[in-house]
Amino acid sequence: MAWPDPLVVGWDIGGAHVKASVLRHGQVLASAQWPCPLWQGLEHLERTLALARERWPGVARARHAVTMTGEMVDLFEHREDGVRRLVGALGDALGPAPAALRFYAGDAGWCDAPTAVRAWAQVASANWLATARHAATALGAGDAVLVDIGSTTTDLIALRGGAVLTTARSDHERLATGELVYQGVVRTPLCAVARRIAWRGVELNVMNEFFATTADVYRLSGELDPGHDQHPSADNAAKDPPATRQRLARMIGLDARDGDADEWLDHAHAWRAHQLAELRGQLERVRARHGLADDTTLVGAGCGDFLLAGLAPPGARCVAYAGEVARFAAAAEPDARRWAQVGAPSVAVAALYEMEQC
Length: 358
Description:
The chain is an alpha/beta fold. It has 2 domains: 8-124 and 326-357, 2-Layer Sandwich (Nucleotidyltransferase, domain 5); 140-325, conserved archaeal protein q6m145 (Nucleotidyltransferase, domain 5, 2-Layer Sandwich), CATH 3.30.420. The chain is built from 13 helices and 14 strands. It has helices spanning 42-55, 79-94, 113-118, 120-123, 127-139, 171-177, 214-220, 241-250, 261-290, 308-311, 321-324, 336-342, 344-357; strands at residues 8-13, 17-24, 27-35, 63-68, 101-104, 110-111, 143-149, 154-160, 163-164, 180-181, 196-199, 202-205, 297-301, 317-320. The strands form 3 sheets. It has a 6-stranded mixed sheet. A hairpin with a 5-residue loop joins strand 5 (101-104) and strand 6. The longest helix is centred in the last third of the chain and has 30 residues, at 261-290. 48% of the residues are buried.
């Protein structure tokens, strides 16, 4: 599809996915996500960027706003090395004109490529801050919490009066405050969700092996959008109900044939309840830390936004990032809203760039 200039493309370069959104005058025209196992090599990023250029030829003329978390993968010696190499790869692919490419550095603002390398600590894993600031600006007065439940992590960020409340900035600091929870609805190993789980009324120790992931739980419950289930299963086997039940069974030393379909669905719901309890507890930590009331607005984003209602305290108002924050053009691609909800940081970084730099 061809759109008139000027275009801004927002990029969120993660360790497992690349998310991109095309905006014009603050309105989303398109949004997409590609699986990108960055830990296996930079060539996966290069291929993904090529796919984006093929899908949206107009991005060759666009300005680009980038945020990232991919510097964390073990492909890189350390996070500084990760930022440097990602900046280089993106510059090669997107920035033939240096003025067309900027990196989001949070409180340090926008950086060209050389500055981004020097300001690596501010550039690293700042995508949550872009989403939170965009949401805070759009919502304005009142209290809110951004609840971005992704494939791998959950961000819980308090907002008030158009501002982000937390002073934490790094992942390390946010792990201490409860604002970053390393649990998501696709890639999280189930052994990280609970230490004990019930089966037929008996509490069992969980096998600490990479036998199954949260995708198995939400695939069986019917809540996970198949389009968001982009990575191989834990055993590289099929993702149909029988194979999914088999992976869940291994977590408690059984085979799928040891229970019927209804029992395995109940078991999946038990895992779901454990994850909800963990996320609810972390949300309460964040609300208490910032003195937010029960009727706080929760802004849901990410492929796990279907859990939002189960996390909400009584009286809370639940809204979607792609409903209350992101704006959509009349000419937007048909699935733009769906993918903007999943890839909120890519929308946010483009929107902030337009507001602050254009």
